[in-house]
Design a protein that fits this description.
- By secondary structure, the chain is mostly helical.
- It is about 50% helix and about 10% strand.
- It contains 10 helices and 5 strands.
- The strands form 2 sheets. Strands 1-2-3 form a 3-stranded parallel sheet, with helices on one face. It has a two-stranded parallel sheet with strand order 4-5.
- α3 links the parallel β2 and β3.
- α2 runs parallel beside α3.
- The longest helix has 22 residues.
- The protein is elongated and about 60 Å long.
- The relative contact order is 0.09.
């Protein structure tokens, strides 16, 4: 979502991107929900408001508050509702007011196992880590196994898998060395198949 580009071509005035979730909008009672929704929209004014897992906005009061603010600021804010395809379709079908204010629907296909593996490698590099060839193959096998399951998280799944693998690696290294200072630098930033293989259990 390139909000800065949209500012450059004159669609937006600030080019900012504000990302929120259901909890940032829905409150304990109606009045507070309206206030929170208005504050979120105001914060995104002149830019893009990205609401992740928007289907979580189930209550009529929350949906009504969001619809009202979308209408009030329709010339100042671009609102993007994101979430799993089927859940988003159900969400819009059960709320005619929301459906009438969402003129465009874009469906993004899930990444392939090869693409998820490339994302995994990029995330490794961003953290200054590397992985053995067997570790990469194990990650690819897991991605192939889970990519067609319900509610698959795509890039989020890759990030979670990597973070868990890094935790496994830390535990493994500390179990092999009496002190952290005994761990060689090369080992410290290298994931092995062992660090990833256990994450395949239960998938």
């Amino acid at each position: 979502i390139n909000a800065k580009y949209m500012k450059g071509v004159g669609v937006l005035s600030t080019g900012q991107l504000v990302e929120v979730s259901r909890s940032d909008i829905v409150a304990g009672y109606v009045g507070q929900t309206s206030i929170k929704t208005k504050e979120v929209i105001e914060k995104a004014k002149g830019g893009i408001l990205f609401i992740d897992e928007a289907y979580g906005i189930r209550s009529d009061s929350a949906a009504t508050a969001l619809i009202q603010e979308m209408e009030n600021q329709r010339d100042n804010v671009i609102v993007i509702l994101a979430g799993y395809n089927e859940r988003m379709q159900e969400f819009l079908e059960t709320n005619e007011g929301m459906k009438s204010r969402v003129p465009h629907w874009v469906e993004f296909p899930d990444y392939t196992a090869d693409e998820l593996t490339d994302i995994f490698k990029l995330m490794l590099a961003e953290r200054g880590f590397d992985a053995t060839e067997d570790a990469i193959k194990e990650a690819h096998y897991i991605f192939e196994k889970v990519r067609n399951t319900d509610n698959f998280g795509n890039g989020r799944f890759v990030r979670n898998l990597l973070e868990q693998a890094m935790q496994n690696q830390a535990v493994r290294l500390l179990s092999l060395r009496e002190q952290a200072s005994d761990i060689r630098k090369k080992e410290m930033f290298l994931l092995t198949r062992e660090d990833i293989a256990s994450l395949n259990e239960g998938l």
